[in-house]
Amino acid sequence: MTKKKIVILGSTGSIGINTLRVIECLGDRFQVIGLAARKNINLLERQIKKFHPKVVALVDRKSARELRGRFKNIRVLSGREGLIEVATLAGADLVISAIVGAPGLIPTLEAVKAKKRVALANKEALVMAGEIVMREAHKKGVKILPIDSEHSAILQCLKAEKEKDVSRIILTASGGPFLKFSSSRLKSVTPQEALRHPTWEMGKKVTIDSATLMNKGLEVIEAHHLFGVDIDRIEVVIHPQAIVHSLVEFVDGTILAHLGTPDMRLPIQYALTYPERLSAPLERLDLTKIKGLTFQKPDTRKFPCLKLAYEAARIGGTAPAVLNATNEIAVSLFLKRKIKFMEIPRMIEKVLNRYKPIKNPTLSEILKADAWAREEALRC
Length: 380
What we know:
This protein is 46% helix and 15% strand. With 380 residues, the protein is of the alpha/beta class. It folds into 2 domains: 4-146, Rossmann fold; 151-261 and 296-379, Orthogonal Bundle (Rna Polymerase Sigma Factor, Chain: A), CATH 1.10.1740.10. The strands form 2 sheets. It has a 7-stranded parallel β-sheet with strand order 4-3-2-1-5-6-7, sandwiched between helices. A 4-stranded mixed β-sheet has the order 9-8-10-11, covered by helices on one side.
């Protein structure tokens, strides 16, 4: 059996670590040929010793120099150019794009241009430049497979269906740690509280986005590009149990739902083995033990980030890139305790109101909008 050759961008993050766990469980089906990370050389070193990639890259050049001293028999690249080289590595059958935030856009796009199948966890690539990325994917005949549990669920619900038969997509959201908090209580929440997600174990940035519901807003934009469904036909419902990962409603009123245990290894495995479905050594869902499945509308007064994401999506052009960039700055400032939790949406709204979006932007215009928003956010 020919092994599927895998590259992982963001191998030391939550998705990267879980991807390697899945690969280890699936035995001889995969060969890891490339790994890339930002600067976590100690974890990357352990991954290299276990999976023996041919090439690795570290964005941080100092960390890359240190790693070269530890490994003489593999290529250690550095900087964004090193990241791109790993993303376009000859022989790679699948590139896992799991870099957090805007830095994942260019490597993901370059992987697509190099005709690599991409398993996408970096939703920001589609939020910022969805039209460009998807147009390039269609041009090159590249399949983009979502790793987000919600988008993986939609992909599976649509597998045997026709696009014209889809009425709406329904994305589920756990509601995060502050679902039952009052508006006044939200004003004083701390980063430590925001990082205590009730269901999922994720990186810090994604966990804060889940607490503000911005993560779901970004997923709405991602779903729009992945599945070609208009923004106003993509809805969000709060589902605290996180058992139903998303739903698709069809023109006859039928709704298909995807249920499963809340474990990111499931959508990761599906992306790795697609279109096959293999047995997974994970906990099975026991319906008799579920006390109830509840759904409710999101409260965009308490969590205005979701509303802001919809507004940016409807405007289109460079507006989503500005939304995303401002959010990344705001989340970083909140984690450093430089702003309060409810200042995150206020900062995003303020920057969006100051910006004049560009329709049908080039990649260069998108990157300029991203840079402008970051500078503007820091001035707020």
